Amino acid sequence: MARSLVIKVTAGADDPERCNQAFTVAAAALASGVPVSLWLSGESSWFALPGRAKELALPHAVPLADLLDAVLAAGQVTLCTQCAARREIGPEDVIAGVRIAGAPTFVEECIAEGAQALVY
User: Which of 8, 48, 54, 119 could be bridged to 79 by S-S, CB 3.0 to 4.6 A?
Assistant: First the structure.
C-alpha cells in the first residue's frame, strides 16, 4: 500500500508561520518520496495566483515561492472551488499546474487507501 499525504492549508499572509509550515511539510514529504496533494483554501487561495507566493516573507524559512515550485514540480496543488469563487479567481488566473476542485475531490483523496490528511 502506497502512503500519500493530503495537506490543506487555510492560512496565508494573515498567519505566515502556519502557512509556511504547511508548504514546508509538503515539500519535505515530496523530497522523501511521499506523494503529496496540497490544497489551498481560505487565505492561502491567493498563492494560486502568479507572483503572490513571492510576497510572503518569513525569517529563517525557505521562501514560500520556492516551496510552491517544489510542490508543483513533484506533487499536486489544488485550489478550493468555493474559495476561488469567493475571490473571483478562475482557471485562467492560476499558475500552470494548479487545478481548481471541490470538496468531493478533497474527500476522495483523504479517504484513499494509505492517505493521511493534515490541516494547517
Answer: 48
